[in-house]
Write the structure tokens for this entry.
Amino acid sequence: MAETKLSCLKDKRWSLDGMTALVTGATRGIGHAIAEELAEFGAAVHICSRNQQDIDQCLEEWNSKGFRITGSACDVLSRDQRENLIKTVASTFDGKLNILTRIRYAIAEELAEFGAAVHICSRHQQDIDQCLEEWNSKGFRITGSACDVLSRDQRENLIKTVASTFDGKLNILKSAVEVDKLVEAMEYQIPIGRLGEPKDISGLVAFLSLLAASYITGQIITLDGGYIIRTPNGTEPNRRPQSQPKDNYPCAVIPHDEKLMAETKLEFFKDKRWSLHGMTALVTGGTRGIGYAIAEELAEFGAAVHICARNQQDIDQCLEQWSNKGFLTTGSVCDVLSPDQREKLMKNVASIFNGKLNILINNAGTASTKSVLDYTREDVATLFGTNFESCFHLCQLAHPLLKASGYGRIVFISSISGLKAFPLCSIYGASKGALNQFTKNIALEWAKDNIRANTVAPGPVKTVLLDFLMKSPGVDKNVETLISGSPVSRI
Ligand SMILES: NC(=O)c1ccc[n+]([C@@H]2O[C@H](COP(=O)([O-])OP(=O)(O)OC[C@H]3O[C@@H](n4cnc5c(N)ncnc54)[C@H](OP(=O)(O)O)[C@@H]3O)[C@@H](O)[C@H]2O)c1
């Protein structure tokens, strides 16, 4: 077997070793990248597509890399073939399947189902013939011809064929004709400034398949370079997007002695997409709870991490623990409610990390529970000051450092209270809701500086903060409700 991405890893949350996966439509494109990524993480993978020759070619390539991948032909459109596929998978994996990923493109079919006459193209005449046979047997008006859309001549030929097929009239143009112009137009709409690549998708799919992601369920995660956050006819983008050059990973920005550093989670890893080696991070509220776990995880992935909280003793304790493990961590006191202390914090961070910050985790937050009528102006100022304004201001202060790093990442820790209404949580929920919206705007504005912004909105998590909330009058009986309302049945 190949050395899997994480075979050297003790933390099984980041390995798929021993797991089984089925990826449909995996001989090229996104499915191909997903199958390969899952196999690299140690999973045994079965793939299917309609073309046995393509499958054989993929398997040969993967088997020569030592991946455990099998495959069989299946047209997922056919019920019989689907049943056969699952029988094959069941016998290959002894009746146990951990991961099922389904990729399928059905634009042509859907248009035909709505009564349109459709012409399709792809590079392989054999694939086209197979599709046409199927579709024609269903009575769809679909024709097709071979065309490699990257060739200008073949594109011109395609248009001639389409013109003669449809008597010179075309209502809908889908996909890749005039590919350059279409791509350019689409890239212009995407804040990150480029179309996605299969590897962009496969990384997330692999992550979602890992034990490390086991508390994520029922989410729809858009992976679109920020496409969805723009209003369709909004103002002119403030830039011509600059794509980040491929493999432009940040160089080490802080001097450190490699020999003294802990073995990082992904030290043995050639694929830099799964490493934070050489990166710098600031985690606010990093002395306990969610912030502590984040700081430790980032350090385990190789980042140099600075934490802040209000209590120096707690900071010292954390740093001692982490330094015993060989992590590159520093820390300083900062009450994020105070603008002066935020400025001091960022000066500190700039000097420790030589003016470059890769990752800003806005985690520190506070909560209180009162009815709308009982909240005072001071309560609102404290909740919004800590949970929203501090994050906004820290982003402003960090911008030059994030930009200078060439690879900036901001993660806000919001809450499901910012998405749903919970009793006595109106102002906490509003402050987190503000963060959710702010994430979209900052992601849009700062994409041009290679800074990405995202929010993680946790449900109830066992921490001091939750303990405090649960003891508040009128809230304590909600624990049972919270657990029973969660599909995973745990906090
Ligand atoms: N736990 C949950 O159920 C839950 C659910 C959804 C979202 N969240 C969010 O997750 C984040 C972390 O919560 P948690 O549950 O991990 O809380 P926690 O256990 O109370 O930890 C909070 C951390 O932030 C620090 N902190 C608090 N106020 C601060 C301030 N004004 N300035 C600087 N540091 C401050 C604390 O240290 P000091 O007190 O020493 O300053 C501590 O390190 C918060 O934004 C919270 O709203 C939590």
In short: DSSP finds 15 helices and twelve strands in the chain. The mean pLDDT is 84. The longest strand covers residues 44-49. The longest helix spans residues 377-405.
